[in-house]
Every structure is written in C-alpha cells, then in structure tokens.
Amino acid sequence: MNIMGVVSAAFVIGIIGLLVGFLLVGAAARFHVETDEREEQVRSLLPGNNCGGCGYAGCDALAAAIASGEADTSACPVGGNRVGKAIAKIMGVDAGSSVRKTAFVKCAGTCDKTRKKSNYYGVKDCRMAVVVPGRTSKKCTYGCLGYGTCVKVCPFDAIHLVDGIAKVDPKACKACGKCVEACPNSLIELVPYRSMYRVQCNSNDNGKAVRAACDAGCIGCRACERACEYGAVTVENNLARIDSEKCVGCGACAEKCPTKVIRVERN
What we know:
Blueprint: H1 3-30, H2 37-45, H3 59-67, H4 80-91, E1 101-105, H5 126-129, H6 149-153, E2 159-162, E3 165-168, H7 178-182, E4 188-192, E5 197-199, H8 207-213, H9 223-227, E6 233-236, E7 239-242, H10 252-256, E8 262-264
Antiparallel strand pairs: 1-4, 2-3, 5-8, 6-7
Helix pairs in contact: 2-3, 2-4
C-alpha cells in the first residue's frame, strides 16, 4: 500500500471539505433572512392541523401573516378564543371577541322523509353526482345528496352520514370551512355555536313542489315570520331564515312551523 498516496488523498479531501464548509457559511450569511421572533412565538401556539380554515396554506403561513399584521390574531378557527387571546398578547393588541361557530347542514331530508326519482350508480362523491343529468336521485335538488364528500374532507371527524344526510357534531367541529367549500349544493354554512333555532332546509321551491319531494321542507308559509315578535325570522324566495343576532330563543317560530323544519339545536 502506498502510504504517501493515502495521506495525499486524505489531505485533498480535507481541503475540499474546508472549502465547501466556507462556501456554505458564506452562502448562509449572504442569503440569511431575518425572522420575526413573534412569528415563531405565534407558530408555537397554533395547533398544527394545517386545515386551511384560516384562509392560508397552513399554520406556518398563518403565523407569518399574523406577525406581519396581514391576518387577525383570532384567525385560527381551531384554536378559538383561548389561542386568539394568547396571540393577541404576543402581538401587543387587544384580543377583542370572536364568536365560536359550527357547521350546520340545512337539510332534514332523511331516508324516511324524502322521495327518490331515480337510482344513482356512479362514484360515491357529491361533486360527481351533482353533474349527472337531474343532479340527484332525490326529487329535491336542493338537499343533501348523501354521498359523504363533506365527511371525507373534514379533518376533525366532525361530520357523519346519518339516515341518508350529513350530520355535524358541533362539539367536534372547529368551523374550518372545508365542508362548506366541498358541498356542491351550498348546503352547509357556519352558524354561531350558541344559536338554538335553525332552519333545516335549503329549498327555494314553492310549497307544493316541496311537499311533493320531501316531508321535512320549508313551504314558505310565513307562519314563523308572523309568530316572531323580534323580527328575527324572514321568508325570502320561499325559504325561512333566522337572524341569530336578533333571535332571543323564545321558540315561537319552531312551535308554529307546520313541517317542523325549524329545529332546536342544543349543543
């Protein structure tokens, strides 16, 4: 074995290693980007679900947006008030108040209530089924298709199919909005968690058409509107709507609803 050759090779490799090291140190110094200490602190408080409910690509992007002042300190729907207040303290701003929300499916057309007009044998995905001529196998084209796309996109296991329609577990829901975006019938909306009375229908058809399609639909009779003394219930395009800010929870609208489509939600 040529000892001098081995020593020479080791020396050359050592020199190359030193040169590479100096180059890396120089590159790191040249391209170094200053990071806001507050961004790291904010990121440590975010839950790390990366659900996108805040409107950003993930928790890292949200932390950067909050630190730069682009996003509100309470922008994380998963963290809620507790995380929002902690982040506000880091940013040196008033925490303010945010209303906890939950997803709500505006359909009560369970298997025993709704009627079918055909059978669907395609891909079990609502976004695929809705493009088929006729839009759905059910007579009501406004309601829940029942193929569980919202269930699949929910990162918190807060939605399940129950008797043919999607049902949200308010306690598990983090109001990330994934299901709202996924529903092709725009059937799901975010509502205040504490709102007790909600209209579980999405149909704009007249009363006769609704009754022909489903036993649990709003027929636009305005009985709820007349019963409400606080102006919280209005009927537009044959569909009742409840203003949660005006609603006092008296229950008069639900009592007068002939189809019992105004339901009490006790979270």
